[in-house]
MarR family transcriptional regulator (Cognatishimia activa), 330 residues
Amino acid sequence: MGDTYGGESLLFLTDEQLRQGIEAMYFAYRGFTADPDRILATMAYGRAHHRAIHFINRAPGTTVTNLLDILGVTKQSLNRVLRTLIEDGLVESHVGKTDKRERNLYLTEEGVALEARLSDAQRVRMRAAYRDAGPEAVAGFRRVLEAMMDTEMRRKNDALRDGGS
Amino acid sequence: MGDTYGGESLLFLTDEQLRQGIEAMYFAYRGFTADPDRILATMAYGRAHHRAIHFINRAPGTTVTNLLDILGVTKQSLNRVLRTLIEDGLVESHVGKTDKRERNLYLTEEGVALEARLSDAQRVRMRAAYRDAGPEAVAGFRRVLEAMMDTEMRRKNDALRDGGS
DNA sequence: CTTGGAGTGTCAACAAGGCTGACGTACTGT
DNA sequence: ACAGTACGTCAGCCTTGTTGACACTCCAAG
């Protein structure tokens, strides 16, 4: 940040360094998804179900359109996942009060339980990584991730953070 | 940050903060893969082709088994991808010299060119993120990613780094 | 020299989860 | 009354992962 040198911060960004970052991102993301994937594999679910459950839990009562916007998939794709979750009693879909075209999505008790299992697994790993790396590293980690998102996604992420807490 | 105690700010890692990290990871990874995905979509290729090309470029002459180990997929899955790349003249497969059962994989000129296009796109984004976040943040970013990998994957990543430079 | 096992390729079948296109229904707002 | 929005669904396609089975080449040990 407030560094005395000029050239050295540019030297830091060699292609080799960048490639290491790219590969680290690839391997880390695999680790990041490995734990919930293992849990999901024991049921008839996949990552798509996890994502739906996660964001419904994050913003209970959210609409289908909103979820489509966050997840960036087609409604056909989301609907397939959502349908199985509703059939299995993990998600409830209620007709909107003000606008009856909309469906508001909520997790059932069972849905909340699964969400907790999945995100617990993920949090354990993230907490361990944070602990190993130290507080300063965590701040840097978050800063780089934010900068790596598309502007649109950052918007969605911010919206979630503001609305969520 | 402005805490009375130093390293123990780790105690402030609430579930909410961890969830923010999880979501940041999700959105950032989407951004991270978006650029090469766009290029690949214009051809008949997907992410699997990108991964194969990347790691063959990283370690020219690598064997199929080694690639299977790094990528963590089945040989049938890799073979399908590899076959199209060889047919399209992006990858060459040579019978091993010392052990003729092995196939040593190399990128052709055309393969190198595509690899460059793909990783350039990815590097541009990563470079921008690094620049926005600053050198200290980058160090932290890398530390957290390393800690987030599985031990096995870290081994593979280290092997690549040692052999690659 | 035979034989077990490793490295590789390939066929078949299947599943998850993306996609497009098309169509229908219910509802809203003008 | 009517155009547009929100949602669901059918049908079909693609990529990329999986298992299982089989064949071939080749190295190394008995």
About this structure: Helices of chain B lie at 15-42, 47-58, 64-71, 75-87, 109-133, 135-148, 151-164. Chain B touches chain A through 63 residues (CB under 8 Å). Residues 1-7 of chain B have pLDDT under 50 and may be disordered.
